[in-house]
Design goal:
The structure holds two protein chains of two kinds.
Chain A (H helix, E strand, L loop, with lengths): L2 E3 L4 E5 L4 E3 L2 E3 L5 E8 L6 E7 L6 E3 L2 E6 L4 E6 L8 E9 L8 E2 L3 E6 L1
Parallel strand pairs in A: 2-12
Antiparallel strand pairs in A: 1-4, 3-9, 5-6, 5-10, 7-8, 8-9, 10-11, 10-12
Chain B lengths: L3 E4 L2 E4 L5 E7 L5 E7 L5 E9 L2 E4 L6 E3 L9 E3 L8 E8 L8 E2 L3 E5 L1
Parallel strand pairs in B: 2-11
Antiparallel strand pairs in B: 1-3, 3-8, 4-5, 4-9, 5-6, 7-8, 9-10, 9-11
Classes of the chains: A mainly beta, B mainly beta.
């Protein structure tokens, strides 16, 4: 069985603050992929990043960075110098080799509000 | 442009009526999914299909039905048996590989009066 936990239901920050969204996962698969998606107020989920279980290198894309640690089963997402446009619901997801192809397990999401 | 379309964006129905939500993709993906999202909630999987003419129940399939007669299309019918159908419905597609991300449509907000 797979499980993704996003313990932070809601986070509120002021613009330009850094913010980290936590994601903890459980899986029995040794080969798996982790994903982050952003859901802006318009409603459509947008894919942000994919990371496989064999690659623990941190990833940085502009103001976004991701920290993957297998030892703690975590795949955290940090936004540096947050902006109002970052306000959205962020979902972490997991897909393991043993699951039906393409079927991911999603966390419950973290609602991020960035205030001007 | 490749992508997923869902129509309509907003849908209103009277209680007791069946309603069908459209989902079309031109990404040539084998797998398609339907999710339900309630206010402040995460995504709950209703049905998914990995290939034409085949589909499986997700976590909350009761009161819903689907068909997959064409690769591009995966319509969802919300039946009168669904006790609380008012929600935001998202359709997604992906390749049939566990390592690929899902692509989502813009969603349909269904309100049952």
């Amino acid at each position: 069985a797979q499980k993704v936990t996003q313990a932070q239901t809601e986070i509120s920050v002021v613009e330009k603050e850094d913010v980290t969204l936590d994601c903890v996962y459980e899986t029995r698969d040794t080969t798996y992929y982790l994903f982050w998606y952003k859901q802006p107020p318009s409603g459509e989920l947008v894919f942000l990043i994919r990371r496989n279980s064999f690659d623990e290198q941190n990833e940085i894309s502009g103001r976004y960075s991701w920290n993957f640690q297998k030892s703690t089963s975590s795949f955290n997402f940090t936004i540096t110098a947050s902006q109002v446009v970052d306000s959205a619901v962020y979902f972490c997801a997991l897909s393991g080799r043993s699951t039906n192809a393409g079927k991911s397990t999603f966390g419950d999401g973290t609602t991020l509000t960035v205030k001007p | 442009d490749g992508g997923i379309t869902q129509s309509p964006k907003y849908l209103f129905r009277k209680e007791g009526q069946n309603v069908t939500l459209s989902c079309e993709q031109n990404l040539n993906h084998d797998a398609m999914y339907w999710y339900r999202q309630d206010p402040g909630q995460g995504l709950r999987l209703i049905y998914y299909s990995q290939i034409v003419n085949d589909f499986q129940k997700g976590d909350i399939a009761e009161g819903y039905s689907v068909s997959r007669e064409k690769k591009e299309s995966f319509p969802l019918t919300v039946t009168s048996a669904q006790k609380n159908p008012t929600a935001f419905y998202l359709c997604a597609s992906s390749t049939s590989n566990f390592y690929n991300e899902q692509f989502f449509g813009p969603g349909t907000r269904l309100t049952v009066l």
